[in-house]
UniProtKB/TrEMBL annotation, chain A:
UniProt keyword annotations, A-Z: Membrane, Transducer, Transmembrane, Transmembrane helix
Protein name (Swiss-Prot/TrEMBL): Methyl-accepting transducer domain-containing protein
A GO biological-process term: signal transduction
Organism whose genome encodes this protein: Paractinoplanes ferrugineus
Superkingdom of origin organism: Bacteria
Annotated PROSITE patterns: CHEMOTAXIS_TRANSDUC_2
Stored Pfam families: MCPsignal
C-alpha cells in the first residue's frame, strides 16, 4: 500500500498511525479516567452526602435528645428552642438525604426513620408540654415508658439506615474499583497495541530508511564524488577563466588606449579635412580666374595664329612681288648685257650706250641681289611664320590640352573637395563612432573586470563547493553507517 | 679686248663680243641622237633651230645646270652655248697661243687664250670651233637648216 510513496510520506503515515493510536489511547484513557472519576465521584458523593447525612441524622437526633432532656430538667426556653431547632434540622436533613438516595432499601429505611422519629416526636412533645406546665419538675410524671422504645426504635432505624448506606457505599466503591481496573486493562491493551503499531511502523520505516534512504545516500555519495570532481574542474576552469579574463582586460585596456588614439587622430584628420575644404573653397576662385586666363590665352593664341597666317599670306604676296622684281631684274640684266653686246658694234655711240647699259645691268644686278636678299628674308620670314604658326598651333593644342587637363584637374579638384567633405563627414562619423566605441570598450572593460572578479568568485565558490562536496561525501558515508547500509 | 665673261661650272670663260649675238634664258632643248655628250641638243632661237653646247661638259667633261644660253656666231650659223652665271662685259687681256699644255689637243680648237680675272684663270673661247662637224650633220639630219 505504501509502495511508490515517498519516504517523507511514509514517515508521515507512520507517525500519523502512531499519533492516531496515541490519540485513541489518550481518548480512551481520558474516557476511562472520566468513567473512573465519575464512579469514584459517585462513591464519594454517596459517602459524603448519604453516609454523612445519615450519620448527621444520628448526631442531630442525639443533640435533640440532649436538648429536650435539658429542658425537661431545667425547663429553660433556650433548651426548648434548641430542641425544636434540632428537630427542624433533623427533618430538613431527612428531606435532603431522601434526595440523595437512590437505593430503594435505603429509602424504605429512611421512611422508617421518619416514622419512628414522628412517633418519638409525638411522645417528646407531650413530655415537653407537661414540663412546661410544671414549675418544679416531676420526674415521675415525666417518665413516660413509651419514650425509650420509641427512641431506641428511632435510633435503631437510623443505625440500620447508616449501615444500609455504608453497605451501598462499599458496593459502589467495589464497582468503581472494578471499572477502574477494567479501564486500566483497556488502557494497557491499547498501550500494547500502540507499542506494537509503533514498533511495526518503526520497523517498516527503518527498513524503508535502510532500503530507500541508503540507496539515496549512496547516490548522494556518488553524486558528491562527481560534484567534487566537477567542482575541481570548475575551479580549474574558473582559474583559467580568471586568467583569460585578466588577459582580456589587459587587451581591452590596450584597445581602449588605441581607440582613444584613433579618436584623437580622427579629430586631427577632421581638422585637416576642414582646413582642406576651406582651401578648396578658396581655390575655386583661383580656378575660375585661371580658367578665364586660359580662355584669354586661347583667344590670344588664335589671334596670333590668324595674324601669323595673314603674315604668311602677305609674305607670299611679297614673295610674288619680289619674284616679279627678280624676274624684271633678270630680264633687265639680260637686256642690258644684250644691249651692251649690241652697242659694242655701234661705234662711239654704241660705247656710250654700252656704258648706260652696263649701269643698267649693274642696277639690275643690284636689284636682283636685293630681290634675292628679300627673297631670302621672305623665306626666313615664311619659315619663321610657319615655325611660329606651328609653334602657335602646338601652343594652341597645348593650351587646349592644358585647358582640358585643367578642366580635368578642376573636376578632380572639385571631386577632391567633395571627397574631402565626404572624408570630413566620414571622419566625424568615425570620430563619433570611435568615441562611442571607446565608451563601449570602457563598459566592456568594466564588464570584463566584473567577469574576472566573478570568475575569481566562481573559482572560490568552486573550491568551496569541492570542499562541501567532499564533506557531503563524508557525511553520506556517515549517514550510510547510520542507516546501516554500510559504506559504498 | 672686250669679252663676255661667264662661268662654266667653276671655270671663268670669256667670248669676244664680236662672236656673241645675245644672251637669253635657257630655252626648251630637244636632245639629238648621235651627237657628242657635250651637245645638249637643239633649240629654236628666234625661229632658227640652233645646236646647244654645254660649255662646262665641253671644257671639264661634267654636266652642270645651265643658267643662260649665249648665242654666238660661227661659220655655219648661230650656236647656243649653255653657260653658268653671266658675269658681264669685261675687258680681257689674254695671250694668244699661250702655254701649249693648256691649248693643245682638241681643246686647242676651242680655247683661243688664257688670262686672269683677279686670282681666277680665264679661258677665252673660240666659238666657231666649238661645234664639231658631226654636230652640224646631226642637226642637218634632224631636218632643221
Amino acid at each position: 500500500m505504501m509502495s511508490g510513496k515517498t519516504f517523507g510520506y511514509k514517515l508521515a503515515g507512520g507517525f500519523g498511525v502512531t499519533l492516531a493510536l496515541t490519540v485513541l489511547m489518550i481518548a480512551t484513557s481520558v474516557l476511562a479516567l472520566r468513567y473512573v472519576v465519575q464512579s469514584k465521584d459517585q462513591v464519594i458523593k454517596s459517602t459524603t452526602t448519604s453516609l454523612v447525612g445519615a450519620v448527621e441524622l444520628s448526631r442531630t437526633m442525639e443533640r435533640r435528645i440532649g436538648g429536650y432532656r435539658a429542658f425537661l430538667l431545667s425547663a429553660g426556653d433556650e433548651w426548648l428552642t434548641a430542641t425544636n431547632a434540632d428537630r427542624a434540622m433533623f427533618l430538613t436533613q431527612v428531606d435532603q438525604l431522601r434526595g440523595t438516595l437512590s437505593d430503594s432499601a435505603a429509602l424504605k429505611l429512611l421512611d422508617t426513620v421518619s416514622q419512628d422519629e414522628a412517633t418519638h416526636n409525638t411522645i417528646v412533645n407531650s413530655l415537653l408540654a407537661k414540663r412546661q406546665a410544671m414549675r418544679v419538675p416531676d420526674m415521675a410524671a415525666l417518665n413516660d415508658p413509651r419514650i425509650k422504645p420509641a427512641r431506641d426504635a428511632m435510633l435503631a432505624a437510623i443505625d440500620a439506615l447508616v449501615a444500609r448506606i455504608r453497605t451501598d457505599v462499599d458496593a459502589d466503591r467495589s464497582a468503581s474499583s472494578t471499572r477502574a481496573t477494567w479501564s486500566i486493562a483497556a488502557i494497557i491493551a491499547l498501550g500494547v497495541v500502540l507499542v506494537l503499531a509503533a514498533a511495526a511502523v518503526a520497523w517498516r520505516l527503518s527498513r524503508d530508511l535502510r532500503r530507500e534512504v541508503g540507496a539515496a545516500v549512496g547516490h548522494i555519495q556518488s553524486s558528491s564524488a562527481q560534484l567534487e570532481a566537477a567542482a575541481a574542474q570548475q575551479a580549474s576552469g574558473g582559474r583559467d577563466q580568471a586568467s583569460a579574463m585578466n588577459e582580456i582586460t589587459t587587451t581591452i585596456s590596450e584597445l581602449l588606449i588605441t581607440s582613444r588614439q584613433i579618436a584623437d587622430s580622427c579629430q586631427r584628420v577632421s581638422k585637416v579635412a576642414e582646413d582642406t575644404a576651406d582651401a578648396a573653397r578658396t581655390g575655386d576662385a583661383t580656378i575660375d580666374q585661371t580658367r578665364a586666363s586660359i580662355t584669354a590665352i586661347r583667344t590670344q593664341v588664335d589671334q596670333i595664329v590668324q595674324h601669323m597666317l595673314a603674315l604668311g599670306e602677305k609674305s607670299q604676296q611679297i614673295g610674288g612681288v619680289v619674284d616679279l622684281v627678280s624676274e624684271l631684274a633678270e630680264q633687265t640684266n639680260i637686256l642690258a648685257i644684250n644691249a651692251t653686246i649690241e652697242a659694242s658694234g655701234a661705234g662711239e655711240w654704241g660705247r656710250r650706250f654700252a656704258v648706260v647699259a652696263e649701269e643698267i645691268r649693274k642696277l639690275a644686278d643690284r636689284t636682283a641681289g636685293s630681290a634675292k636678299e628679300i627673297r631670302a628674308m621672305i623665306e626666313d620670314v615664311r619659315g619663321a611664320v610657319n615655325t611660329t604658326v606651328m609653334a602657335t598651333e602646338i601652343g594652341a593644342k597645348a593650351v587646349d590640352a592644358g585647358s582640358r587637363q585643367f578642366d580635368d584637374a578642376t573636376s578632380s579638384f572639385r571631386r577632391i573637395a567633395q571627397l574631402v567633405a565626404t572624408t570630413s563627414d566620414a571622419t566625424r562619423e568615425i570620430e563619433l563612432s570611435t568615441k562611442q566605441q571607446t565608451t563601449a570598450v570602457e563598459q566592456v572593460s568594466s564588464a570584463a573586470s566584473d567577469t574576472a572578479r566573478a570568475s575569481r568568485e566562481t573559482e572560490a565558490s568552486a573550491v568551496q563547493t569541492k570542499q562541501t562536496a567532499a564533506h557531503l561525501s563524508t557525511l553520506s558515508g556517515d549517514l550510510l553507517d547510520l542507516v546501516g547500509s554500510g559504506r559504498h | 679686248m672686250t669679252a663676255l665673261v661667264f662661268r662654266a661650272g667653276p671655270l671663268l670663260c670669256a667670248l669676244r663680243l664680236e662672236e656673241v649675238i645675245e644672251t637669253m634664258r635657257p630655252l626648251e632643248t630637244q636632245p639629238l641622237a648621235g651627237t657628242p655628250p657635250f651637245v645638249l641638243g637643239i633649240s629654236v632661237l628666234r625661229g632658227v633651230p640652233t645646236p646647244v653646247i654645254d660649255v662646262g661638259r665641253l671644257l671639264r667633261g661634267d654636266q652642270g645646270e645651265a643658267e643662260r644660253y649665249v648665242a654666238v656666231r660661227t661659220e655655219r650659223g648661230a650656236v647656243a652655248l649653255a653657260t653658268g652665271e653671266i658675269i658681264g662685259i669685261r675687258s680681257v687681256d689674254t695671250t694668244t697661243g699661250a702655254h701649249p699644255a693648256l691649248l693643245g689637243g682638241r681643246s686647242s680648237r676651242l680655247v683661243a687664250g688664257v688670262g686672269t680675272v683677279g686670282a681666277e684663270p680665264l679661258l677665252l673661247l673660240q666659238s666657231m670651233r666649238a661645234v664639231p662637224d658631226d654636230v652640224w650633220e646631226a642637226a642637218a639630219s634632224a631636218g632643221v637648216p
